[in-house]
C-alpha cells in the first residue's frame, strides 16, 4: 500500500530543499506549485476565473497570466489574496488528486505531496502523515530578505500571507529542523526514510 506523505513549511524555511532530497531518492513528488501554474495556463478555466474577477490588467498582451501584476495585488490586499485562493482551490485540488492517483498507480511505496498551503487548505485529510520543514521565525525573516533581496517590511508581509511556521510545526506529525547545515537536514530525512523502511526495499 502506498504511503502518502504531506510535505509543507513556510516561505524560506527550506521545504523545496527537502522535497529535492526525496526526489533524488526517486520517490514521486506531487508539487502543488506546479499544479498552481498548470491551472492558470493559457485557455484554462482557472485563468478565466481569475481574469473575470481581477480584470484584464492581470493578463499579458498574449492572454497569458501576468504573474508580477497579480502578485503585487494579492501581497498588498489580504482579502484579494483570500479570493484568489478560493477561485483556484477547486482546480488545484483536482490537479493534486489526479497526480496523486497517477503516482499510486505507478506502484510507488511512498508519494510525497509537496504543498506549501497544506494546512491552510486542509489537505492534511488526504495524508498518512504530515512533515513540516521548520526554522525559527527570526531565521526565516533573515533568509527571506537575503534570498529575495527585499526589505524587512516586504519580507514580513510575505510571511504574514501564510500560517506562522510555529503553528505548522505544532500541528506536524514530523518536523525537519532546517536551521542547521544541509548535511544535518539530509540526515533527518534519511533517518525518517530508514525508520519507515523506505530505503530497505529492493530499490536500485
Taking the sheet with the most strands, its summary is: 5 strands, parallel
Superfamily (CATH H level) name of the largest domain: P-loop containing nucleotide triphosphate hydrolases
- Count of domains: 2
CATH architecture of the largest domain: 3-Layer(aba) Sandwich
CATH topology of the largest domain: Rossmann fold
Alpha-beta classification: alpha/beta
Give the SSE map.
Elements lengths: L2 E6 L6 H10 L4 E3 H7 L6 H10 L12 H10 L1 H28 L4 E5 L14 E6 L2 H12 L3 H8 L5 H7 L2 E4 L4 H14 L9
Parallel strand pairs: 1-3, 1-4, 2-3, 4-5
Helix pairs in contact: 2-5, 3-5, 4-5, 6-7
Walk me through this protein's architecture.
- This protein is an alpha/beta fold and 204 residues long.
- The protein folds into 2 domains: 117 residues, 3-Layer(aba) Sandwich (Rossmann fold), CATH 3.40.50; 73 residues.
- It has 9 helices and 5 strands; from the N terminus they run βαβααααββαααβα.
- A 5-stranded parallel sheet has the order 2-3-1-4-5, with helices on both faces.
- Helix 4 packs across helix 5 and helix 6 crosses helix 7.
- The protein starts with a strand and ends in a 9-residue tail after the last helix.
- The model has no long low-confidence stretch (mean pLDDT 95).
Amino acid at each position: 500500500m502506498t504511503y502518502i506523505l504531506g510535505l509543507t513549511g513556510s516561505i524560506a524555511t527550506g521545504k523545496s530543499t527537502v522535497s529535492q532530497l526525496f526526489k533524488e531518492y526517486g520517490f514521486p513528488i506531487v508539487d502543488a506549485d506546479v499544479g498552481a501554474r498548470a491551472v492558470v495556463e493559457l485557455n484554462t478555466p482557472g485563468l478565466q476565473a481569475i481574469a473575470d474577477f481581477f480584470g484584464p490588467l492581470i493578463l499579458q498582451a498574449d492572454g497569458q497570466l501576468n504573474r508580477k501584476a497579480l502578485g503585487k495585488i494579492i501581497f498588498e490586499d489580504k482579502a484579494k489574496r483570500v479570493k484568489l485562493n478560493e477561485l483556484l482551490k477547486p482546480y488545484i485540488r483536482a490537479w493534486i488528486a489526479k497526480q496523486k492517483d497517477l503516482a499510486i498507480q505507478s506502484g510507488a511505496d511512498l508519494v510525497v505531496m509537496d504543498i506549501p498551503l497544506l494546512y491552510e487548505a486542509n489537505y492534511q485529510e488526504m495524508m498518512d502523515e504530515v512533515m513540516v520543514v521548520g526554522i525559527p521565525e527570526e531565521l526565516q525573516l533573515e533568509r527571506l530578505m537575503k534570498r529575495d533581496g527585499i526589505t524587512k517590511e516586504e519580507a514580513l508581509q510575505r510571511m504574514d500571507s501564510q500560517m506562522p511556521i510555529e503553528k505548522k510545526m505544532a500541528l506536524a506529525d514530523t518536523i525537519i529542523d532546517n536551521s542547521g547545515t544541509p548535511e544535518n537536514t539530509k540526515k533527518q530525512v534519511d533517518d525518517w526514510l530508514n525508520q519507515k523502511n523506505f530505503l530497505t526495499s529492493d530499490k536500485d
